[in-house]
Amino acid sequence: MTTAAGRVLAVLSAFGPRHRSLTLSDIARRAGLTLPTAHRLAGELVSWGGLERDPAGRYSVGLRLLELAALAPRGLQLREAAFPFLDDLHSLTRGNVHLAVRDGREVVYVETLRARAAATNSRVGDRWPMHATGTGLVLLAHAEPAFQAEVLRSPLERFTRYTITDPGELRRQLAFIRQSGVAVARGTITPDDLVVAAPVRDPSGRVAAAISVVVQVAGARPRELARLLTATSRSLSKRLASGPARVMASSGARQAGWAAPAACAADR
């Protein structure tokens, strides 16, 4: 990064779902900056509130960024409209529930509801490669062909033995998702989990987001989960198309008439 703004952005970009707390040396290395430059920029960001520094000298993202993120219309408006539907999904399935949007080649969670006994946290702002998550697979399946080709040409990171890393296999999976309307994947990030995801369409009919439920593989009922996710995604898409009308908490998942299994969820 050659500009002052670029260097600040590089410092902030050093943080991520797997790098929530960093030393100054970590920041310098991940941002590609010298240690003195990283020290100066981190200090300025702490003073502004963009970063926080704990007694041990480690840095994490500050509340000022959370305040700014809440102003993002794409995430905030979508979260407000979707929350009653997500809450129903969470209550019925007892699994981890995600609402995600595409950002570059990654999927970003703009809302998460976590199962009580989940082994791993999902948090708002977490981002993952699209090929490795249920929501990401849905968004990738409905992306423009040129973007799909770009992703298929890029390295596909492996998280577990179930993660799809072969471009041909991924291409076939995307075609099946478009045909079936849902993505069903097992253990792509955590081996014992099963995820079912479905698209959410904006008023123009374009797939703008995806919702997912993650439950433990043992005792999971993917067909019933797929039916539930499909009904919920349709209801949420209709809600988005209706404009600012009031969202009823009983719409969506409860209309699908599905009873939850006892299994709970870990992430993704």
Automatic annotation (TrEMBL):
Keywords: DNA-binding, Transcription, Transcription regulation. One of its GO terms (biological process) is negative regulation of DNA-templated transcription. SUPFAM superfamilies: GAF domain-like, Winged helix' DNA-binding domain. Pfam families: HTH_IclR, IclR_C. Residues 2-63 form the HTH iclR-type domain. Residues 64-242 form the IclR-ED domain. Signal peptide: none annotated. GO terms for molecular function: DNA binding; DNA-binding transcription factor activity. This is IclR family transcriptional regulator.
